[in-house]
């Protein structure tokens, strides 16, 4: 009977599962969510091991984010530059991939999701904009769709929904626009509009921001593209009315709202004894269901019961867990006018859909790994039933999805553009939650001559 006790004890330990990456970095995540970025930076700096091992990319992504939030833009870009280089240098290592097949994907160096890779360039562009280095910001934005094309080329079917980034094209247009290059601004705005219309609306349920339509009409007019102007006037059912240039330039404000999803895992764990009344346990993590069946007390050590007949199989897959935003709507009030902050990038939706797109590949890899583990278990069982049980339990204990991801990314990015009227401008930000309650924050924005200012505002 004690053999049976240890089997049940082992299975119980198995079903408790392992900590996710979010749980293992809980202190850092808590500091970030509270806006305690100095504390988060200290926690990160103490974790020197993370900067040297398989999680090195995540370490520098978080370091870049913290420096960005603290306003250390050059330091932020240094960290993001290292992270970008590491992603470009990543190569499949045959020995590591072989080890994954008898363990789990978390033993390999972290491979960022495609959207995480390109958001490195987005943050670098924002840093350059804060430093008023427009050309450097443009370089980063141009990289985004080139990088997406390279990433998509590695998939044989090219069926990823996330093949172009509309927000990157929009941002490129805003930067060209600010530099007075209206021809290239129009082209970038047009590309962004087409991507929103064709890809983002269908795949991510995100429509064209109203501000983009205004800028598309304005740059078509400024470039003298009469045919294109009339085409978009018909599409938008709006007649363009030229407006004088703002006396003190414009403000483009990006709203980084909330936090994107975190990875966890879901899976199926089976354990069965094929003879007698045995133990059969079925557990489904996705549904939170567990059904244990214990064999009766009538069995003795002399009963025909073989440990080689105990089979423990665990198949797990990664999934995202949404972190709903505290605020669902944002507006800017300035000079008696209301400027809604319009969603331009829904990182939460992109994360869920891109993971869904690669689930067939994830399923194939998981089943191959389980198949190899079961083969090892079967061979061990033929030699010794105790060894077979040990291998079976070890297989189950080591079966784990890769729950690592860049967890300081925002849930969504919204923006608006405001014509500034004075050298020092007082604007009011209002954010509303799901119950309609509002918080208000005031900002003072000095004009930069007649240039466009770029600013970011984050709600956690």
Explain the overall architecture.
This protein has 460 residues and is an alpha+beta fold. The chain has one domain: Serine Threonine Protein Phosphatase 5, Tetratricopeptide repeat. The protein is built from 16 helices and 12 strands. The chain has helices spanning 2-15, 21-24, 26-33, 37-46, 56-69, 73-89, 94-102, 114-130, 134-153, 166-178, 182-204, 210-222, 226-236, 347-357, 359-383, 385-398; strands at 250-257, 262-273, 280-284, 289-293, 310-321, 329-334, 337-340, 342-346, 412-419, 424-432, 438-446, 452-459. The strands form 3 sheets. The chain has a 4-stranded mixed β-sheet with strand order 8-9-1-12. A 4-stranded antiparallel β-sheet has the order 4-3-2-5. A 4-stranded antiparallel β-sheet has the order 7-6-10-11, with no helix packed on it. Strand 2 and strand 3 (280-284) form a beta hairpin. Helix 3 packs antiparallel against helix 4 and helix 15 (359-383) runs antiparallel to helix 16 (385-398). The longest helix is centred in the last third of the chain and has 25 residues, at 359-383. The chain is globular. The termini are far apart.
């Amino acid at each position: 009977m004690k053999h049976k006790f240890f089997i049940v004890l082992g299975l119980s330990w198995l079903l408790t599962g392992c900590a996710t990456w979010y749980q293992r970095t809980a202190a850092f995540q808590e500091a970030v969510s509270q806006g305690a970025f100095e504390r988060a930076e200290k926690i990160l700096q103490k974790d020197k091991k993370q900067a040297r091992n398989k999680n090195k990319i995540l370490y520098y992504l978080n370091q870049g984010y913290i420096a960005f939030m603290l306003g250390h833009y050059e330091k932020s870009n240094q960290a993001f530059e290292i992270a970008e280089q590491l992603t470009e240098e990543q190569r499949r290592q045959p020995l590591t991939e072989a080890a994954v097949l008898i363990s789990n994907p978390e033993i390999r160096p972290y491979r960022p999701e495609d959207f995480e890779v390109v958001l490195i360039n987005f943050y670098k562009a924002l840093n350059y904009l804060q430093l008023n280095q427009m050309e450097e910001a443009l370089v980063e934005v141009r990289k985004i769709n080139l990088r997406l094309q390279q990433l998509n080329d590695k998939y044989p079917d090219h069926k990823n929904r996330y093949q172009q980034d509309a927000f990157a094209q929009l941002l490129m247009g805003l930067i060209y626009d600010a530099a007075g290059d209206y021809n290239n601004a129009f082209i970038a705005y047009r590309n962004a509009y087409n991507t929103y219309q064709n890809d983002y609306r269908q795949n991510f349920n995100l429509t064209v921001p109203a501000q983009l339509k205004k800028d598309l009409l304005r740059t078509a007019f400024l470039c003298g593209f009469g045919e294109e102007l009339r085409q978009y006037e018909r599409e938008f059912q709006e007649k363009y009315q030229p407006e004088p240039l703002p006396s003190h330039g414009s403000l483009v404000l990006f709203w980084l709202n909330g936090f994107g999803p975190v990875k966890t895992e879901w899976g199926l764990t089976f354990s069965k004894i094929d003879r007698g009344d045995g133990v059969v346990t079925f557990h489904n993590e996705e549904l939170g269901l567990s059904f244990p069946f214990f064999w009766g007390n009538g069995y003795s050590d002399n009963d025909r019961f073989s440990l080689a007949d105990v089979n423990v199989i665990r198949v797990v897959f990664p999934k995202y867990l949404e972190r709903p935003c505290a605020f669902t709507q944002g507006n800017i009030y300035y000079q008696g006018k209301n400027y809604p902050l319009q969603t331009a990038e829904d990182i939460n939706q992109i994360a869920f859909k891109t993971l869904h797109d690669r689930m067939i590949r994830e399923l194939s890899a998981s089943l191959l790994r389980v198949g190899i583990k079961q083969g090892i278990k079967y061979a061990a069982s033929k030699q010794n039933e105790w060894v077979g049980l040990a291998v079976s339990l070890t297989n189950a204990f080591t079966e784990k999805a890769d729950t690592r991801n860049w967890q300081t990314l925002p849930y969504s990015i919204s923006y608006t553009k405001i014509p500034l009227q004075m050298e020092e401008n007082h604007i009011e930000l209002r954010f509303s939650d799901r119950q309609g309650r509002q918080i208000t924050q005031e900002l003072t924005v000095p004009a930069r001559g007649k240039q466009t200012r770029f600013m970011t505002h984050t709600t956690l």
